[in-house]
Specification:
disordered N terminus; binds 3-phosphoglyceric acid; transit peptide; phosphoglycerate transmembrane transporter activity; Tpt_PEP_transl; plastid
């Protein structure tokens, strides 16, 4: 019996971990194998994926199956005060850890965005810079695996097959965002990208037939209205830049949907999952980058950039590539620790830090009405997060 519970707990832990890759799905229903007597089917349990190590299952089983006997080592509310202190400390340590993940994620993202824009200003070839960021990340991870700095993931053909649509969507979203940033201010791209929840709801509603509470639909009004206000009042509006950010939003919604379907039951860590995604995206993107831009344009553009900036231009390219991988890696690692909801709030906070820092660094002209549009859109994403709770 206890053995069965242990098995169920560990299978739940595997499922719960894979759930973290599903950035936008806060609560899951799991059908568990029978744990009592091995015959009666257990009702689907509704579990929030953030519940740490999955011990919430024990409590749920106690409520629904009171005949299950609890051994001393199992979670028990009547544990001595000392273990409450230990529990409190580990909770506090976890919060500090998550705080560190968030701070690192935002800081790396700000640095990436600044170097990315500096590179694109001097060398406007977004297909190559997108490819280089994926190539650098892939190389870093292949070296880490070869030198055993990171554990090599155990993958099979089925894993790569399910990763393929995720990688296609990741590639499109990445290139589209970079094309956007090559045409408009970084802040504008990120204001439009803050509209991603609206795409998520619309795709889920009209393509997948999912329904949401009315409050979720209402939260889309400030998101869409704020983005629209920011777009029409943007001083340096460019249609390719605008469409690039919109396509990126749509692609990332599909990336989340595909990873939700594809990663169920897999137990690859967040870091390795992102590494595999980078490798596959690199293979997909390279031929398209050559076809759209190509070595001749790159060579001429590179010479031009180096003559303008100097030989240290290569370090800007290296910085944007390395920081792109690092911020994504940390964001996927933090998914191992937090719920999709906390993740989406963190992502919105990240956009605020990018928008503000890029406006300061690049002296981006902003009209008050434009800033108001951005603020409304960001507020809308917070309301959306709350409504989804
Ligand atoms: C990219 O290049 O992939 C985008 O800048 C990603 O943007 P996001 O991670 O902030 O959505």
């Amino acid at each position: 019996m206890i053995c069965s519970i242990k098995q169920s707990v560990s299978s739940l832990q595997a499922l719960t971990r894979s759930d973290f890759y599903q950035r936008k799905s806060p609560v899951k229903s799991l059908s568990l194998p029978s744990v009592v007597g091995g015959t009666s089917p257990v009702k689907p349990l509704h579990l929030a994926p953030v519940r740490g190590l999955g011990f919430g299952l024990i409590e749920d089983l106690r409520v629904r199956r009171p005949l299950i006997r609890c051994e001393a080592y199992e979670a028990d509310r009547s544990e001595p005060v000392e273990s409450d202190v230990v529990k409190g400390r580990s909770e506090a340590a976890k919060k500090v850890k998550i705080g560190l993940y968030f701070a690192t994620w935002w800081a790396l993202n700000v640095v990436f965005n600044i170097y990315n824009k500096k590179v694109l200003n001097a060398f406007p070839y977004p297909w190559l810079t997108s490819t280089l960021s994926l190539a650098t990340g892939s190389l870093m991870m292949l070296i880490s695996w070869a030198t055993r700095i990171a554990e090599t993931p155990k993958t099979d053909f089925a894993f790569w097959k399910t990763l393929f649509p995720v990688a296609v969507a990741h590639t499109i979203g990445h290139v589209a965002a970079t094309v956007s940033m090559s045409k408009v201010a970084v802040s504008f791209t990120h204001i439009i990208k803050s509209g991603e929840p609206a795409f998520s709801v619309l795709v889920s509603r009209f393509l997948l037939g999912e329904s949401f509470p009315t409050s979720v639909y209402f939260s889309l009004i400030p998101i869409i209205g704020g983005c629209a206000l920011a777009a029409v009042t943007e001083l340096n509006f460019n249609m390719i830049g605008f469409m690039g950010a919109m396509i990126s939003n749509l692609a990332f919604v599909f990336r989340n949907i595909f990873s939700k379907r594809g990663m169920k039951g897999k137990s690859v860590s967040g870091m390795n999952y992102y590494a595999c995604l980078s490798i596959m995206s690199l293979l997909i993107l390279t031929p398209f980058a050559i076809a759209v831009e190509g070595p001749q344009m790159w060579a001429a553009g590179w010479q031009n950039a180096v003559s303008q900036i100097g030989p240290h231009f290569v370090w800007w390219v290296a910085a944007q590539s390395v920081f792109y991988h690092l911020y994504n890696q940390v964001s996927y690692m933090s998914l191992d620790e937090i719920s999709p909801l906390t993740f989406s709030i963190g992502n919105t906070m990240k956009r605020i830090s990018v928008i503000v820092s890029s406006i300061i660094i690049f002296h981006t002209p902003v009209q008050p009405i434009n800033a108001l549009g951005a603020a409304i859109a960001i507020l809308g994403t917070f309301l959306y997060s709350q409504a989804k709770q």
